[in-house]
Known about the structure:
Elements: E1 5-12, E2 15-24, E3 29-37, E4 44-50, H1 59-63, H2 67-73, E5 76-80, H3 119-134, E6 137-146, H4 149-160, E7 167-171, H5 181-191, H6 195-198, H7 203-208, E8 216-221, H8 227-231, H9 233-243, E9 247-252, H10 259-277
Amino acid sequence: MDAVKISQEHLSFGGRLLFCAHDSESCAGTMRFSLFLPPGRGDFPILIWLSGLTCTEENFMAKAGAQRMAAKLGLALLAPDTSPRDTGIPGEDEDWDLGSGAGFYLDASETPWRSHYRMESWITSELRDLVSSEFPVDLSRAGVSGHSMGGHGALTLALRHPALFQSVSAFAPICAPTRCPWGEKAFSAYLGHDRETWRAHDACELIRNGGTLPGVLVDQGLNDSFLEEQLRPDLLQTACADRGLDLVLRRHDGYDHSYYFVSSFIDDHLEWHANRLAG
């Protein structure tokens, strides 16, 4: 396992929780990820979890409480970091919603970001190949989920790479990044100022242009302070309805944007994926 450096290993609900790093060609530097392998021999179906702004590969494993149910279901969990780190790009660490912790799950086309910020290529190709070669997981049975920026990533990567993911879900996703401040800021920096190019990384626009999903589960808290300005699940609901796509959108009174919300409903999402990845 020379390609993967394991920095930590913990026993969790009978399974193995690993914190790992490797030298990434896509991102031209060290990239980190965490991996939970349930009890048993494998090969296990796998859920790729994409975290939100400011998060690392640790947040989901530490806060979501997912390992108990994943162990019961025999489901592996893979949580990539949310961006490259320590690249030397000027301004990389100045803003919490751009640069470090804010990769937005796309390949940047603009200088200076394009030399390192290639999250889409890393996750959909390099990391998948690495994990499937080094660990007992079955990438032909893979789902994708995520929270906030990671929910955006789950939707857009599933729409852009439909052959890779057999199940999709999201918590409080950024549904229309071309029409919210977070997306406009990141897309301007990573993709340039031609807004037409942004549409290829906006779930609502991808759906309108013919993209398909294998049914998607979305949970949204109604006490989420980002709901109206940044997230806009109403736009996703309209886009799916117009195309006849299967969307289960659940709105929850009182819940906010935190991992207290995610942990309250993570079991439903794990079962959603396990049922679709079985066999």
